[in-house]
Amino acid sequence: MAHNPTSGGSNDNSLVVCFGEMLIDFVPTIGEVSLAEAPAFKKAPGGAPANVAVGISKLGGTSAFIGKVGDDEFGYMLVDILKQNNVNTSGVRYDSNARTALAFVTLRADGEREFLFFRHPSADMLLRESELDINIIKQARIFHYGSISLIAEPCKSTHLAAMSMAKRSGGILSYDPNLRLPLWPSEQAARDGIMSIWDQADIIKISEDEITFLTGGDDHNDDNVVLNKLYHPNLKLLIVTEGSKGCRYYTKEFKGRVPGVKSKSVDTTGAGDAFVSGILNCLASDLNLFKDEERLREALLFANACGAITVTERGAIPALPTKEAVLKLVKLVAAS
């Protein structure tokens, strides 16, 4: 997984650019309560694309974040966190008329997550095409995004423009839909919106729940459902995450399963983002992984271990692992 730092000159050829939302999550100070029952909340940086950018940097990779925050204390705090984690922030913009997005998130006693979002509209939704840092997009070896940035204009058009810029410059497109149903006007709008850019991605990572949702209730364990309804001819890699059980992978040539890495779960927030960081970090330094099943399986085990470490600590960004921690865990798995 080593990357040769001299091969890219000043244009780092393993750069992963993450596009989308960064926000503040407010999490109850005690577990297993509804939002109404929570006695107090603690603020935590959030937003899947930003988590992935930090995750890659913590693993020793090179990453950048493109998005918009409010010209407010929370916006500055978030950008500071990116900078502290060596994420390139040249593509971040500030909006003086809209606030940084907020989300109140809790895990209830019944295990269900409850969300309350403040985005009416929030700064991330207002990123305009004219505000894109074209230079950093053109340098992306991998351009990664979710679907939340597709919900509202002007951000949606900006997202589509950034994708086509990255593609034209030879970047690989990576998509994690990261379904957040409460943010969409309706279930159908969510399905249509998520699928509207499906065929353009080179890499897609989805969860079992998302398969069920996108296929209208089909069995997420059925390979035929995945291959017939979700795999498309342009795809280099489709990954289905199964939480602590591991993941499944599908390429043009082969398919299989990589078991999960056992760990003591405290908080699953950010586990999927850590997984994405892990696999993209491996791919950024070696795009031929798609073609070699054994090396792809190693990379997916590495990504599973990234997720396994993240669930042992509260919060997403503070829990994202270093490369040393992941390799140590992978070694333990190999020895057992």
Descriptive labels:
single chain; 336 residues; alpha/beta; UDP-N-acetylmuramoyl-L-alanine:D-glutamate ligase; 9-stranded mixed β-sheet; 4-stranded mixed β-sheet; 13 strands; 34% helix; globular; disordered N terminus
Describe the structure.
It is an enzyme of class 2 (transferase). Its EC number is 2.7.1.4. May play an important role in maintaining the flux of carbon towards starch formation. This protein has 336 residues and is an alpha/beta fold. The protein has ten helices and 13 strands. A hairpin with a 5-residue loop joins strand 6 (102-107) and strand 7 (113-118). The longest helix has 18 residues, at 293-310. The radius of gyration is 19 Å and the shape is globular. Residues 1-11 have low confidence and may be disordered.
